[in-house]
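Hello Y.,

Per our agreement to keep a running log of every chain we model this quarter, I'm adding this entry. I've kept the format consistent with earlier entries: sequence first, then predicted structure.
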Amino acid sequence: MYSARLVAASLLVVACAAEDDKAPGQWTPGKGDGAFELFEAGPARLDGSLDVALDHRVPAYRVESFGGTKLTIDVKGRSNGDAYVIVEGPLAGDGDRIAIGAGAVVGEDDDSGNGRDARLELELAQPGVYRILTGTYDSLGAGGAATGSLTLSVKCGGTCSRPMVDQKSFVRALQAQGGAGFAEYAKAELASLVHDPAIAEQMSAQLATILADPNLTGLDRFPTISLAAIGALRPALC
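Predicted structure for the entry above:
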């Protein structure tokens, strides 16, 4: 009796293992042609979750990397669904001209989460737009029909927003781009914005002194003008 139970248990383990012993999937553009449609589903919800219903359509959610953005992406299947996730990017420009599924794949996973759930932990080193393709092994992994229900969760663990640029760094970047002509360009812009020639000249002289200083001393207080001259600046500020 004990031997019979042992054999039965062994057969059950083998059967379960065989069910998940799938050939590894590898995404290629056009893999699901005729079986399902890829479509843009809007931005992913960072630090939140989205319910995904597959009806012969696989959604692609957008995320943005600011250079070194770290994401943990979980896709969980319902009713024992076999989740699958692909991340592609960065997409050229704003991403609108790159067909869904045609970008460079930077991450792909089937069962790294609990059970048959998919999980990716990525650092998106390059800034730009990325897509998260959210489907099942049958669809994204094998190129078959897209059916079932999933939950997508995206958590950001680092560089989750665009780095702030301080005033001096911004001006130094402009100087580097404009070279020796930047000071003259800035002077011309002031003249076009401030219609009082005397005040425009005064501000140009202040700016020239600041730009000539390697430390850009006084930039945080520019422009320094009298209260009586503020009225001349109102057209430039409105």
